[in-house]
């Protein structure tokens, strides 16, 4: 599958004291992408202000959202967004949701379903999925939110209490931890009635034994081999509307080099 890569080294959505490593992670991935089909979205130098939104660095997150939306509007065919933090998915998912009948697979160790009111950190990376379905800070919520029944959490294994309650209330499908099969995932997508899929991958969906350079590791995650298997099964049944890979945060060039083969294997599954 021919795809355009859009590299967005945003760090402002992270709540980690090591958030700047996300810039290095995005740049490390960029170094292994074909330059002719790669676009880079500049991020602001400043951290950004909350502006009373309840979201840390709100102004910079909003600015990156707008810049990425403009870049995506120039692309024909699927784009693979390379973060940066999970907040880069705001424009990427909105772009495909506006263009077609899509379900979003949220491969992530965390649900990212907090609101500014429920978030323990005010970091946008923990609110992005909730914002995409229309319940977030004004100025970040999409004009056409994703329906909750079009969101599938996969590999999730760490929930805040408020997120756990919301998943039940909203009827969001969740395939927990690593205890599900490709058939389970395909069936969950079929149940949405969607015609295509967007695949979000926060690298902390992987077990910490599979990848080191992640900021919020959670035990009992997916193996890289199983994630690749799941991606291939989904692509064998549904057209890929787009994808995102986020949260690569290497501590050094050497650590990045150790983990890049795993990431490139995932990219290969998305583009094959």
Any overview of this molecule?
With 272 residues, this protein is α/β, with parallel strands linked by helices. It has one domain: Arginase, Chain A (3-Layer(aba) Sandwich), CATH 3.40.800. 35% of the residues lie in helices and 16% in strands. The chain has 8 helices and 8 strands, in the order βαβαβαβαβαβαβαβα. The protein has helices spanning 21-30, 58-72, 89-99, 128-132, 161-170, 182-192, 224-237, 253-271, and strands at residues 4-8, 38-40, 79-83, 102-107, 151-156, 173-176, 196-202, 240-246. Strands 2-1-3-8-7-4-5-6 form an 8-stranded parallel sheet, with helices on both faces. α2 crosses α3 (89-99) and α6 packs across α7 (224-237). It starts with a strand and ends with a helix.
CATH topology descriptor: Arginase, Chain A
- In CATH, the architecture is 3-Layer(aba) Sandwich
Distance between the termini: 6 Å
Beta-strand share of residues:
15-25%
Radius of gyration: 17 Å
The CATH class is identified as Alpha Beta
Query: Major β-sheet, in short?
Result: 8 strands, parallel
Which structural class fits the helix and strand makeup?
alpha/beta
Number of strands: 8
- The coarse overall form would be globular
Low-pLDDT stretches are none
Read across the widest sheet, the strand sequence of neighbours is: 2-1-3-8-7-4-5-6
pLDDT average, as an integer? 97
H and E order:
EHEHEHEHEHEHEHEH
Number of domains: 1
Number of helices: 8
Give the % helix: 25-40%
CATH superfamily: Ureohydrolase domain
Task: Name some characteristics of this structure.
272 residues, alpha/beta, Arginase, Chain A, eight-stranded parallel beta sheet, 8 helices, globular
